[in-house]
Amino acid sequence: MEIRLSDETLTGLRRLCNRSLVNEDYFYRLLKEFLKTGQSSAEKPEKDKSEIDEYKSDVLKTAYASLAVLLIEAARHDLDNFKLKTVLEGYNLDTSRISLIVDAYQSGKSNIQTSLSKIGTNLPHIIDVRWRMDLRIESDYLGERAFQPYFIIELVTVTSSNNKKIVKFSCTPEGLQELVCSLKAAARHVTKIITPSK
């Protein structure tokens, strides 16, 4: 899968690879700063202020933002080094800087992907269901008894960080039937969305 970069990002990458706009020192500092941001907070060195905050030039800020977009998108699409290098060469960027960008991507890819996996609204996945039926006995003041069945359902879920959680609830047979109908309707709706229309 090939990544598509916006015109603004391409402009920033061209500036990043232009030696007259971004000298070697700043180029290495930009790469180093981005790789630091991909680390977990436990691995980050203590520092009061980011080096990027010190940059006065809009060119450097644009170059840094474009580098971040490129490396994040590459990690999101799980590009290998060869594919990333091919993408960058397709934009006619400086080959020596392409190699350095690809090397930086390789060293920071797993940290970037780990950070990306912690972002988002991934709902827990149901991995197991346990249920049992009980009988509720209710008696009124006249001594008459009414037997009412109900179900106790446990859903075992797992989050994106592999934490297991048990969701437990009870319902009447009518409530269970309504739940099953709703789940079937949701499954049909998802199948309809996924299946291409003819």
From TrEMBL:
TM region positions: none
Ranges where the COMM domain occurs: 125-194
GO biological process entries: sodium ion transport
Top-rank lineage group of the source organism: Eukaryota
InterPro entries registered for this protein in UniProt: COMM, COMMD3
Record-stated family: Belongs to the COMM domain-containing protein 3 family.
This protein's name: COMM domain-containing protein 3
